[in-house]
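Side project, low priority. Logging it here so it doesn't get lost.
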Amino acid sequence: MKRLRRIGIFVTFLLVFVLTAGAAFAASPPHIRLEETGAKDEYKITIQNWDSQAVSVQFDLIVNVEKPKYQMDWAVQGDGVYHHIEEQALEDGQTKLTFYVDRLQPISNSASASIGKLSFQKLKKAPSFTTSGYMKVLRADNLEEGEVYQDTELTLSRYRSSGGSHYSGSTRFDLPREWAEVSGGVTSVNGISCITLDMREDGRLSADVLKNLAKRKIQATLDFGSYQWLIDGAEVGDIPDSQNYYDLTLDLTRLQNVSMAAKKSDTMQFESAYDGALPFTAVLRCKAGQGGQILFLAHYHQQNGLLEYVSHQTADSGGYVAFPFRHLSRYAIVTEDLWGVLEKESQPSADSSGGSTVGSVLAGTADKNTPPIIVPPANDPVVLEDEANDPVSPEPPALDNVPEEEPESVPVSGEADSGKGIVIGAAVVGVLLCAAVIVLAIVMYRKRRGQQ
């Protein structure tokens, strides 16, 4: 009996330890990330490991600039959002910025919440940031108490590399290439000036290069390895004076929420490093399906978790498509007609398909390993309104239906990180419980044999 009592105590202790460790693991704090947008002293604010049911958040940033010596703007992402910033001058010459964001519906459908963009003017040098670690998150089912964190961390990413999932932390890379460094690569094809730029090491396209492409009406191919951006210099508009570069790097991580919205018919997901409207048409050429397959481009809304139809094309014989964009954020390419677009087309034609097929646009280049030089015509560039004007679905999809399997690659956003952590934690709990049951069964079996 004493031995059985000891075994029972051990099993109880083991269960308590596993459950406590699992709860601590699941309750890991959110993470604040600041990223340069390419505009001078402008930063995108994202919160990772986010509670997808949260409707309100409070957090702070401490900037190493005295309050009277700067001007600040904050553009919030999302519709129906109440927001404001409280500024507090600190004794050491710094300023504490406390952010408040409230919305009637969940701020983000996934575990990564894009909060908005913060910009400064009249700064003599680039600012540095810290945080007190305090963050308060409210859910619709717990508006009074909420969840309070004291150890929230902050990452300041000066530049996102072309790898897509690797961030530079607080390290600043060299300035993007200027026109004088790349102008020697201009060639003439059928009387058209063209240039191919290798963007695999540095995905930033400087404003200086863009202005020269426009001035000289040069067609450019930006080679990122697995995909290419095609830009016609003749279509480049006015570039804001504050914009130093555009980072056209794509993060190709596949997130579970997006796959769920696509009913698992997504062949490709991507989020651009630059987020917002473009002063030029950028055509994305990539392999996203099989030859002859109809592929649909859709914009993902983080708030309602839905995919908005943009356009569709028929992949060429190599499975390539070429979609034009005038706005960048998070998109997916899917094979299923989730919107019934094809049924609504009474008389299919090249124009009704949201753009001519890639087979005709890139004739003679589809089966080559190198990207085409001549930019295909931008039939229907993707021009989206800001998130603030996006409609909100009255019935957002339930997150409980997110597939339990891990994503195909580990995203930076934290959505798959948190999901992966839960899966690993559950597996550990299951293994330990099974081990405890086996040990208990062996002891009981030996005791019975001893009594016989």
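Brief comment: Confidence is low (pLDDT under 50) at residues 9-26, 163-173, 350-379, 385-424.
Revisit when time allows.
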